[in-house]
Amino acid sequence: MRAEVTKGQSGWSLGRLFKGNIRQYGMFIALLLIMLLFQILTDGILLKPINITNLILQNSYILILAIGMLLVIITGHIDLSVGSVAAFVGAVSAIMIVEWQMHFVPAMLLSLLIGALIGAWQGFWVAYVRIPSFIVTLAGMLLFRGLTLIVLEGQSISGYPRAFQKMSAGFIPDIPGEYGFHMVTLLAGAAVSLILIFLEWKGRLTQQRYGFDVLPLPLFIGKLAVLLVIINLFTYVLASYAGIPNILVMLFLLIVIYTFFMRKTIMGRHIYALGGNEKAAALSGVKTKKMTFWVFVNMGVLAALAGLVFAARLGAATPKAGVNFELDAIAACFIGGASATGGVGTVIGAIVGGLVMGVMNNGMSLVGLGIDWQQGIKGLVLLLAVAFDLYNKNKTA
């Protein structure tokens, strides 16, 4: 969330700060406004601790898929098969864990390997045979949905061990004692706050050292204060109920790892270059085919992980698992600022987009809107988000 300004600018203002970073801040503000709207419409139910926890648990697998889908979209491709792949991997995990009585840890590793192989299969056709990703993954969606039905024989398989289900439905343990709050969660919020202060201040000093423009100190402190309030309010709400869900720890690690990968590594920059202009990237030395191939392998692994998380939350593998997961993941990326033409998007943006979808689903359910209205409203929000993105792109071109 660093400001993007050119040298020679003066007379900083909040308006100029927002205008220069509208793509980054727009969805954050939209998310806050949507939460405020449904908090009012639901008479305060939306932001109750138990509902916030449920929001995290209900949307965890979509957020995992959104991270992988973001990389696919940045490269200029699409993956329509992720819901079917998640369902197929969940079905295979049920066979291994429930029917074959395999320990869930090696079964999970094998499931992730299956996801990687599926991603490699699809990535080969897209990267090396040059079949459009829409066609390859549409075929994959049909293929792996059919294989799911074959593996499960049209029936659900339940009976996962409790330890496996805790991945998606458990919480991190607390310090022994009676405190009234989940103390580990409060301490985690304080620790994240200190780390954020250190990283932001270090980044500011580095920018100043190299002569880049930085926010005036009052605005920098104000931005940091807002972030700290959000973090500690969030952990306070979680601590008021059962603490930090295990799946939230997994999501946090994925966000940190993929944000670092996309921002700080050569491969991350190559992915952006590939999506921005494939021919120019190839002439610059980027191995475009190899990069596309590995992006789909990564998507396969994350789709497998999402399938395991969904199966653990449900406590069963079902033939209907994963239906429309791909649409929610794609919508999360576009709502979060990814460009339909590739080359643009951030991990944080995809997560925010996923939360926008999740809060809308939850809020509309709480106020009693039918599924027909929910689908229509979500479609309209997606259309407006992409139109907003194109408007800003044309305005700055």
Distance between the termini: 21 Å
Number of helices: 16
Q: Approximately how much beta-strand content do the residues carry? A: under 5%
Element string (H = helix, E = strand): HHHHHHEHHHHHHHEHHH
In terms of per-residue confidence, which ranges show pLDDT below 50 for 5 or more consecutive residues?
Answer: 1-12
C-alpha Rg (nearest Å): 22 Å
Strand order of the largest sheet: 1-2
Q: Can you tell me the overall shape?
A: globular
Structural class: mainly alpha
Question: How would a textbook summarize the main sheet?
Answer: 2 strands, antiparallel
Helix content: over 70%
What does this structure look like?
By secondary structure, the protein is mainly alpha-helical. The chain has 16 helices and two strands. It has helices at residues 14-20, 22-41, 49-74, 82-99, 104-127, 133-152, 162-169, 183-209, 217-239, 246-264, 266-276, 278-283, 288-314, 325-335, 347-366, 371-396, and strands at residues 157-158, 316-317. The protein has a two-stranded antiparallel sheet. The longest helix has 27 residues, at 183-209. The two termini are 21 Å apart.
